[in-house]
Amino acid sequence: MTMAELFHLNHVRSVYGKRTVLDIADLSLSSGEFFALVGPSGAGKSTLLRLLNFLEAPTAGSLTFDGQPVPLHPPLSLFRRVTMVFQRPLLLQRSVRENVAYGLRVRGLPADERVEAMLERVGLKAFASQSAHKLSGGELQRAALARALVLDPDVLLLDEPTANLDPYNVGLIETIVREENQTRGITVVLVTHNVFQARRLAHRVGLLLEGRLVEVAPTETFFQSPRDPRTAAFVRGEMVY
Description:
Blueprint: E1 5-16, E2 19-30, E3 34-38, H1 45-52, E4 60-65, E5 68-69, H2 76-79, E6 82-85, H3 96-106, H4 112-121, H5 137-149, E7 155-159, H6 167-184, E8 187-191, H7 195-201, E9 204-209, E10 212-218, H8 219-224, H9 229-235
Parallel strand pairs: 3-8, 3-9, 6-7, 7-8
Antiparallel strand pairs: 1-2, 1-4, 4-5, 9-10
Helix pairs in contact: 3-5, 4-5, 5-6
């Protein structure tokens, strides 16, 4: 079954000062897709996530979401369809439970049952009343993931969500994100330096170098028979930048 297009970037450029940090001729992301973006630091991966989260507009080109052009000042309803988990998430100086419930309360939605179920889901039920600032790195990231998923978004953006975490937390977070994609149909865009993680999770993988997409392909094609020699070198772990 063909998935419907959700995002489309057409000749999108992001320029900071005199420096072009992103220059994407064409990229489509489908509803329900799990897309992984790999590449070295400074390649423009986080900038692309900010565009997809409507936190900034491209300097040039067009970005459409769900078939409609994204306006310069997107409405709140658009922001609420997309949520992001950062590598170093910021949590409120409140309990874990209050942090997970925050987005629901801001939207005027009932929180109790949904929050308790999500805390159970991410393995933080026992920490619900504890201050979020007492959590370990892995627990903190799981709390941030719970805070995002409890909102039932259409799109989940992940910016290096498991960097520097222990294998237990990496496995738990990967399992939860994969299940959300497979069972609830959430579109996931994952930025990661971990090519093994991209291969485990994604339907398609893209390589970004110096702001440009070198190659986008189905996961096994990307790793087994890449078209571009730079992709092949990157997959082998060679320095390509």
